[in-house]
Batch of 2 targets.
Target 1
Amino acid sequence: MPVNYVTPAADQLFPVAGVRLGVTEAGIRKANRRDLTLIELAPGSRVAGVFTKNRFCAAPVHVCRAHLQKEGIRALVINTGVANAGTGEPGMVSARQTCDAVAQLLDIAADQVLPFSTGVILEPLPVERLVAGLPGARAALKTDGWHEAAHAIMTTDTVAKAASRKVGAGGTACSITGMAKGAGMIRPNMATMLGFIATDAAVAQPLLEQLVKEAADESFNCITVDGDTSTNDSFVLIATGRGSAKFESAQTAGWAEFKTAVIAVARELAQAIVRDGEGATKYIEVAVEGGRTREECKAVGYAIGHSPLVKTAFFASDPNLGRILAAIGYAWNNDPALADLDVDKVKVWLGDVLVAENGGRAASYREEDGARTMKPAEIRIRVDLGRGSHAANVWTCDFSYDYVKINADYRS
Amino acid sequence: MPVNYVTPAADQLFPVAGVRLGVTEAGIRKANRRDLTLIELAPGSRVAGVFTKNRFCAAPVHVCRAHLQKEGIRALVINTGVANAGTGEPGMVSARQTCDAVAQLLDIAADQVLPFSTGVILEPLPVERLVAGLPGARAALKTDGWHEAAHAIMTTDTVAKAASRKVGAGGTACSITGMAKGAGMIRPNMATMLGFIATDAAVAQPLLEQLVKEAADESFNCITVDGDTSTNDSFVLIATGRGSAKFESAQTAGWAEFKTAVIAVARELAQAIVRDGEGATKYIEVAVEGGRTREECKAVGYAIGHSPLVKTAFFASDPNLGRILAAIGYAWNNDPALADLDVDKVKVWLGDVLVAENGGRAASYREEDGARTMKPAEIRIRVDLGRGSHAANVWTCDFSYDYVKINADYRS
């Protein structure tokens, strides 16, 4: 059960002119499950992406990186069930065969196709079943296919994740719609499990490349469920140029509003992943400020967000503050710049309650106040490092029996 | 229930001439529990220690570091229940009061006392109760007190950890006995939760300083339960010089054998901590070889050993190899030198079964072989990075429902 998250209804997801989505059951790993999604883009669409930095990155990620070297992407194909990661050269062959088959079907070139896979690592991709499913996915293509596609890309997700916005007016009016999947093996580094956002605005390629990085950095790169960076993380931003808005540079009228909206959609999707984190019962925002750099603030946020001791304490609604302090204290493992952190200057709040300062528990702290702030399903930890003006947020969830259950059962 | 570990019997722990141990119930946090241990050292004993690198390190750790600046340590005092960490200046006062009280009792100077605390972080140390308990601990002092002391320093441990050896003969004969505690918040960095090893050999101070670091590096610094570096990690090596052995330099006859035995005792204690890891049902050795440096091998070992996905798969006895590969792939998060890891050269074995090579699953791998190797309570993962001649081991345990239960319940 996700924490305070409901999938938007189909009619809350605005179609994006130039984007059609179709899903089908290809039987990739299990029968009777929609596991194959085809996304067709209108000619002239621009695409930019960021991908996992895991060294064992999946074959489709290699292919995506290669195909994004030039413009002209016209289709995306996404399968669940098998991640096609840790599959060596045969995996690369399968990913290329997938692109070939999509290209033939849509009468485009193979390098105009981006392939994505998610599911079990190290299993061979049953490419013949995937290819056999493609005509069905093509037949299902429609502009209002976001809702179905968001469901078809799920694996251990308990809810589909999608978000949509309309911004601007007149010449800057545009729609932005996105979807994402992911619940476990979530600690994206430069990207997320699978995230797709499309807009009908026209966006110059360099601007789009910059925006996809910035949006990832403000959203997917700020979340963690279990600290495990996936082999398949991919986040793709599509601008079809079929609407009225046209952004040539960061100075174009309406760009700031557009950019803010794209980041808001990305963040909504990223936070939805955490709200649906495997076994999650609590949604936790770790807001770190007063750092010398944004990086060291994130290092502290991740130290807290990854600590199994902190996460189990949140599961128990136990204000076990010492575990938070301990995590702050060893955060220099994540960023050596923190090795000289002066703990006497660190302040920690749970919700609005000051819990620690001067190297220890705040004099004003009362256990009942701490207990009160731990009760709700959404909790905010605020940390002031007291040594600079930078800040960063990390979003995470608690660690429950169900996390163990899900991950001890999954695959077997 | 620890994995294949039984506390040695009292008569398996050799007394160390010059060391007397006494325990008592001081009611530090709960009544009717032996929670205070006093260790008295004969004059002329030499002591060396390594301590946590957590920036929120405990008050007693600060005091230990200061007191070890000069020689002449004559007593150690250890309380459980309260860690006296995250307690600011009042915590320092309590730690110093503890030393003062021990000094008065034993007619020594306060800076000849090393204080240690373990338990809940951020709670004030009830120093008056500790001080009131000291005469009882003193009255209980005896040379064969190791077994009782190993029990008295436990917190969430389910078994006491101790180890003992006799090595050498004639002029190099000596006894080495040690004890340790710890089950959660275990990812020592330069030291462990609490570990104490004493020998009746005489060891020159510089040699002892070097040995304590080396022994920590080969034992406590190779284990992880949950990746949480404690605020109180301390590992102390004591040489009383009351036996016949006398080591003035690394060239002294018998030194190599003695050193090997000290490291063996340290490793036995460190491994006992993992075998008793919170909720552990499996004991896992991650042996990484073929690295360019020992550090990058440890980085890979820790990436695997910390991954909640790997650990839950071990709990389920599920050979979910993809999770291991994914962890190897993001190990560069721990050591940037691994950013150029060529995954096609990486080989992975579960037990004696080759499971991955050439960037994917080994052609010879059969699922039933993987399943067979996952069954026993002790499992070895071997990773060959294929790029150098260095190696390192990391010892860890699985992640079970009981880890969550223990840490969601502890303290509340």
Target 2
Amino acid sequence: MAENLQYYIDKLNKLNFKDMYEGNFFLTWEKTDDELAAVFTLADALRYLRSNNISTKIFDSGLGVSLFRDNSTRTRFSFASACNLLGLEVQDLDEGKSQIAHGETVRETANMISFMADVIGIRDDMYIGKGNAYMHTVVDAVTEGYREGVLEQKPTLVNLQCDIDHPTQCMADMAHIIHTFGGVEQLKGKKIAMSWAYSPSYGKPLSVPQGVIGLMTRFGMDVVLAHPEGYEVMPEVEDVDLKQAKKSGGSFSKTNSMAEAFKDADIVYPKSWAPFAAMEKRTKLYGDGDTEGIAKLEKELLAQNAEHKDWCCTEELMKTTKDGKALYLHCLPADINGVSCKDGEVEASVFDRYRVPLYKEASFKPYIIAAMIFLAKEKDPQAVLKALEEKAVKRHFE
Amino acid sequence: MAENLQYYIDKLNKLNFKDMYEGNFFLTWEKTDDELAAVFTLADALRYLRSNNISTKIFDSGLGVSLFRDNSTRTRFSFASACNLLGLEVQDLDEGKSQIAHGETVRETANMISFMADVIGIRDDMYIGKGNAYMHTVVDAVTEGYREGVLEQKPTLVNLQCDIDHPTQCMADMAHIIHTFGGVEQLKGKKIAMSWAYSPSYGKPLSVPQGVIGLMTRFGMDVVLAHPEGYEVMPEVEDVDLKQAKKSGGSFSKTNSMAEAFKDADIVYPKSWAPFAAMEKRTKLYGDGDTEGIAKLEKELLAQNAEHKDWCCTEELMKTTKDGKALYLHCLPADINGVSCKDGEVEASVFDRYRVPLYKEASFKPYIIAAMIFLAKEKDPQAVLKALEEKAVKRHFE
Amino acid sequence: MAENLQYYIDKLNKLNFKDMYEGNFFLTWEKTDDELAAVFTLADALRYLRSNNISTKIFDSGLGVSLFRDNSTRTRFSFASACNLLGLEVQDLDEGKSQIAHGETVRETANMISFMADVIGIRDDMYIGKGNAYMHTVVDAVTEGYREGVLEQKPTLVNLQCDIDHPTQCMADMAHIIHTFGGVEQLKGKKIAMSWAYSPSYGKPLSVPQGVIGLMTRFGMDVVLAHPEGYEVMPEVEDVDLKQAKKSGGSFSKTNSMAEAFKDADIVYPKSWAPFAAMEKRTKLYGDGDTEGIAKLEKELLAQNAEHKDWCCTEELMKTTKDGKALYLHCLPADINGVSCKDGEVEASVFDRYRVPLYKEASFKPYIIAAMIFLAKEKDPQAVLKALEEKAVKRHFE
């Protein structure tokens, strides 16, 4: 952590992020390098203020609406924490796991829940081609509502995980990397392995690996995506990655060997996910209400998974990484051998060695979310940060 | 919106609403004209302040307890928004859809949840003869609790929909009418049609039509209630309407023809509801736990409904209204032909033309609820409004 | 209530409770007499400030996380009220009634929900040997998280009911006794009967009777525990009670006769609970997933209970208490004859005579919880109280 707030303000002063004001956060690759840097910097500034017991409330009242299509303790608490940090009260809208009706209903509901909403956080990652599209429908609806005088303010959207990207997770992962390696400028030439790993459950979202390679290819690193044959991610994301890697002076490559990916890696991110093609199929089956087909697909996928139990982050594999000490990442919860399952993504001794760093990785998320909201809500974030420091309202009065 | 806050304060100064202080809000027809006017004016004043980024928090801490007997996204968010606007944190009490035990249990629970409660919002519309009575039991219990020193403050009750009235909805509808027609004094002689309309679902609450005619008959309008034979509302409410219409210089009439009701109407409110007699029967069946009887009744009601599919707000009918441009109202969500159902309450093109105005109609509700709370909590609301403006705490610090 | 805040500050000045700072609250018998006195005094001071419309918010933002293993309206609202009183927003973590996984998962979840948490309130009373242990695991995890820089603050734990003790309930009961008898110094030599009573349900937690005798034996009272044979509580708690009673100059005795316990009692607390041995057995059956065994045990326990329907707090029994006017206590809700059940813990006329006092008894709980948090969070509580009075921010702006 820096010694004073001015350090962060100086950093922000060098960045161009004016288009974030009154904007939304859908995908990291829709943002410029400067915009992402602004999020990282502001997240650190907010943490600096909080750890110095200075209130960061920029709202005296107002709601943060969360809309989760799936059970979620961690994301829900991260979002609630971010809102609380800025002075917003959370109201959860629980729509269940069903595929929501589109068009009229979404537009209407979006407005009905937004009369006092300054931010809407949505997690909708289960159906390919649906989650991100749904978020856009919501944003279009509230933007119209604001323009037409239905809403007194336009809520900003924060993507808390969609079918394509998981920006708050990956930005938190990246903040952890930056802090671990001592600055974003230290990352050029580093090797990061985003690798599939075996899990006894199936159908884990693709948005984590896609988000990771979609973000990590922007910092001059050598990004390797490893998975067994058949576990491909969305091709559109890979196209983005290739362009970004080239532009940043790094590389993006693929392999079907976990060993190859781990070899000399500085950072490893072994995690299970479902094949893109299977997820597309599942989305269609759900759309058709074909429960028999869904059950059959699940069985096939579990059988397919079981062929790759050797894709595990073992001590042996870790030894092959850079100095045997690659930074191990995970979005949590991980499937740990002999702890949460018999065979899983990682050996218990590896996980345990990185337990505290993993918790730190997660601890960045509330600040990342808060930073995204802050940048969408404040025309001059530097001035507001300065004013917060000068007002010096104590977060905890003691 | 007025140019300054003084406009609203001047309006309030001409009204007598002193009995609202420390009171509750059950039914609109239990309030005087001045008291209703105070709610409308204060709602506008709060919206004025918020749209000028001035905090309207009159509570530094305190709870708003919501008690819903039914799933409710819209009402829940409206209540949460109103509480947040005034500085109260919402705590939801979910008692399920069951008919709650009365007497001892209600009195006890009412006090146990109210130690820090400044407001209790209740929605209990499912059972005839129960909802409103339940609210009175709660109010009596907390009033006694306050008097006896159990509670440090007496929570005010806001009726968020009972078996008889839906005051926050109808007051929001009325606020929308007032704003659309340019003032309450413009309403004399206007014709409003509260009409039954077909819906593929059954058992929609009577409190909306009853609330609408119970409120709209107070402004000198010609109020027409239209429904097929057998879809009568509570006779007690009709008695109130006749008296109110006479007193206000308007009229209240009934017809079994939707066409007759729509003819030359300035405002139309086509909406499905269940017959009062059937709802009474259902309440008894639920009381007896007669699930077979309930299923049979449902079947009968759906069959009865299906005979009246022609009760739809069509383009053709809309053309017969005043200049073909009557203001279309609905409490939302509506059953829209070809959108949310095959045959429903309204044709899609009609609904779509009024979509933004319908959202605006809904947007008044949080302010109406907040105004009801404000008037129950502040002895001198004008002075508090003035003080809020002078303090000028920014809602959003920017 | 005292005439001024200084009264409470003077009382606090005479007590040594410095070890409560940055501590947790698990069991009352782990606290010194001075520490318990500090909780009672601070609870009163907070109530004094609130009733004088002075804000007691010591947090500008921050979360209070509640973790309930069981449905709970009352405890949930008490905790929410306490958090709100101090400026914390509540976030509920619902883990269902299942026995939660231990070790890794608990440590991880504890940290993931605590990034902005200043307090964690846990209720986990269903399984013998589990609830209190679980709370310790959570505290150990967040303490490590704080030390390692994962968390910016260490959340304090408040035990909202475990398998051993129910400190917030019993402290509220005791606050009620103190206020009723005019001070803790009036309690020496008073007789209190903690008695089993019949209830048509089974398996009510042992933590209430254990908590009551575990606390009440510290004030020089004659504490009598009465229950039918076979309804023993945890022997470890009885050991504690004997020592405490001796030290305080009172006594602790047991009887299998309700009449003997009530004879000349100043205070009676008749309440159902399950036999300790049966609860141990049930815990094992749940652990084994033996649903058949659980059903069989339930049947046995209900039959066993039914043999003791005569264990009821009747008017006749009440007449045998001191001047026929013993203070009747209950943690609520009670099983009332002819009201909530046919045969229960207490006759309706007895309950009704004590209804208002029972509500008052309950009303202390939010303040007791708030006091526990306050003492864990403030190094110099007296100075903070004084500062709050001087700042004199109005809780309700009027």
